[in-house]
């Protein structure tokens, strides 16, 4: 099991497990760590689940960079009606948005990766009527040489099989979550209407008594 536990397929399986919906808030999913070879291009993948269709007028996205754990976050890519790149000196024009918000994908590609690009990349997503902003972080590691290759055929087969099953579980959980959320919103709306009608009746009774 040791080779399997170090394989990309097994790490992907753990990522799928970690991405399973656990609450009523919007889920944002990204790999915890990504490694890239110095001088190459790398895609920093970030996707999200939402019960609602993405509307450009309401949807918002922020990508920020942190050089260290206690460092302040630097905004370098933003979506407000359209994609806007904040040209940080460290990135220049090396950042390209390669996602599609309407397909719940907000990934970007970092070109010509440099050693100083190492750090934490934060993905923040808000898709109203979802009230809570989702967040995921990626730790980017920059390598100076290719890591040794391992035979992971068995791991890929196991990971694909189990991953497909977990994908179906996540889909079912998302459907259940969306149904519950929309039902709760309808109940809240009905309660608010009942309360307003009660206030109106209460205000009208004193007038009737004086007549």
DSSP strand count = 11
Largest sheet: 6 strands, mixed
Shape: elongated
The total of helices stands at 3
Coarse structural class: alpha+beta
CATH architecture type of the domain at 27-143: Sandwich
CATH class descriptor of the domain at 27-143: Mainly Beta
The CATH topology annotation of the domain at 27-143 reads as Immunoglobulin-like
How big a fraction of the residues is strand?
A: 25-35%
Strand order, largest beta sheet = 2-11-10-5-6-7
Question: SSE order in H/E notation?
Answer: HHEEEEEEEEEEEH
- Helix-residue proportion: 25-40%
Radius of gyration: 23 Å
- Estimate the mean pLDDT confidence: 78
Give an account of the 3D structure.
This protein has a domain at 27-143: Immunoglobulin-like (Sandwich). The chain contains 3 helices and 11 strands, in the order ααβββββββββββα. The protein has helices at residues 2-5, 8-18, 153-210, and strands spanning 27-29, 33-37, 42-44, 47-49, 60-66, 74-80, 82-85, 95-97, 108-110, 119-126, 134-143. Strands 2-11-10-5-6-7 form a 6-stranded mixed sheet, with no helix packed on it. Strands 3-9-8 form a 3-stranded antiparallel sheet, with no helix packed on it. The N and C termini lie far apart (86 Å). The model is unreliable at 1-5 and 16-23 (pLDDT under 50).
Task: Write a brief caption for the model.
This protein has helices at 2-5, 8-18, 153-210; strands at 27-29, 33-37, 42-44, 47-49, 60-66, 74-80, 82-85, 95-97, 108-110, 119-126, 134-143. The protein is built from three helices and eleven strands. Helix 2 packs parallel to helix 3 (153-210).
